[in-house]
Amino acid sequence: MSNKFTINMRQPGSALQDFHGVLDFIGADGELVSKKQLVFSMKSLLELNQKMTTPIEQDQKRPQQSGFPHISILYHCAKWLGFFHYTEEGTRKRVHLNPAALISWNKLNFSEQYFTLLESWLSGDPNEHAFSVPIIRLDWFKRECLGKREEYYQFMQQKAYRIGNLAAGLDLFGLVEIQHATPDAGGGWKIATLNLTQTGEFVFDLMGVGNPGTRTFDPFFHMSRKDEGSAFYKLFQPYFPELKNTFSVEQGVNDRPGTYIFKVSLGRAWRRIAIDHEETLEDLANVILYAFAFDKDHLYSFEFHDTGGFKREYMCPMGRGAETFTDEISLEELPLSIKASMKFIFDFGDCWEFKVLLEKVDPDGDKVEVAEIIAAGGEAPEQYPDWDDEEW
Fold first, then answer.
1. Cα atoms in the Cβ-side hemisphere of radius 13 Å centred on 233
2. CA 222 to chain centre
3. What is the pLDDT of residue 249?
4. Residue 323: helix, strand or coil by DSSP?
5. What angle do CA 153, 62, 29 make, to 5 degrees?
6. Which residues contact 371 (CB under 8 A, 6 or more apart)?
7. Domains of the chain by start residue, with CATH
8. 116: region left, alpha or beta (phi > 0 left; psi from -120 to 50 alpha)
9. Could you read off the pLDDT of 157-186 as tens digits, one per residue?
């Protein structure tokens, strides 16, 4: 086994330098992103790409974030680690930096930051359990993707192998060395050559990549998040004694006492509701149904992207399969940003879909007993407009 490698802001690979570059690009004012996918605009991508250590060469007319895999990987690692929170801004959202995450991050040394990012990328989205995450594909990559010709990489990038994302991630962490090919007219990033570096050999050997019989680390077990204390992190500690602290961000409750003001819309009808912070999502659901003169005779759920950009779903107490039910979470505990909205889906047959916008939290407002309808506009639709008593 070769000696350990040196880790600082510029090596191995550009992961740390470019990661800080992405955070600096978002900055104190935040950056606009798309409302559904939460990704950068084309203008932002082109600007940020030029700030990367090795800008991607591409010739696409309307490039998407997926066409800049190095940027996409670092952005999603930051999101998964809890660096971001999102607010609504017109037809888009704005990504902001989480101060608590920055404080925790800056307490880590370069080695701790490097392996935190590497583990985050290899493990993929903690809310997904897909078998396409990088850590599961390393054996295949080592066997099929190293030392090939440019035509082979072009074929693999065009097909559904997602070799570009895998190669870009390994490149960021200095595990492979990539020579970039000139993009085709109107085309995206192309790989010319792809070879394992000495750092890559060290990491792959230690992880048992390509040699399952020698592996002391199970990637499937690790991906399931059952290895408390990070077996991946511990794998490298004998070679990097400076690996002592792990990254964590305190989540806790939002601690936003006061009166919550929601604007609830259904088509052209809307109702503004004031409700106390101690009330639950179930209480809010009851008030919404009352405000729109709907009977509470069906199941319902709330869906939204939380402050970190992850999808949340809370099911009514009579539902099944939810991790948290609406009577178990108070509004104060709700990880919803001001000016962000939820979907309140009522009656899974007819699928009435209400938009529930959190307009503000008034800490000094008059305390409401439970909830009040403080404003209204438009006539609510009939819950059962097609019913005809004569047919029953």
1. 19
2. 19
3. 82
4. coil
5. 110
6. 273, 274, 275, 276, 279, 283, 284, 287
7. 15-236 (no CATH), 259-377 (3.10.290.30)
8. alpha
9. 877 567 899 999 999 999 999 999 999 999
Are 194 and 208 in contact by the 8 Å Cβ rule? The answer is: no
The pTM score is 0.80
Contact 316, 345 (CB under 8 A): no
Q: How many CB atoms lie within 10 A of CB 75?
A: 25
Q: Which of 206, 129, 204, 122 is nearest to 165 (CA)?
A: 122
What single-letter DSSP state applies at residue 268? T
C-alpha 274 chain-centroid distance: 31
DSSP 68-132: SHHHHHHHHHHHHHT-EEEEEETTEEEEEE-HHHHHHHHTS-HHHHHHHHHHHHHH--TT---TT
DSSP string spanning 157-194? HHTTT-HHHHHHHHHHTTSEEEEEEPPPTT---EEEEE
- Distance between CA atoms of 217 and 31, rounded to whole angstroms? 38
Q: Is 347 left (phi over 0), alpha (psi -120 to 50) or beta?
A: left
CA atoms within 13 A on the CB side of 27: 6
Task: Give me the torsion for CA of 4, 6, 10, 11, rounded to 10°.
Answer: -20
Residue recorded with tokens 């010709």 = 149
Name beta bridge partners: 328. none
Phi, psi angles (nearest 5°) of residue 106:
-70, -10
Dump pLDDT digits (tens) for 219-266.
Answer: 655 544 444 556 788 889 999 999 999 998 865 445 688 999 999 999
Residue labelled with tokens 């080695």: 111
Q: Tell me the residue type at 50.
A: Q
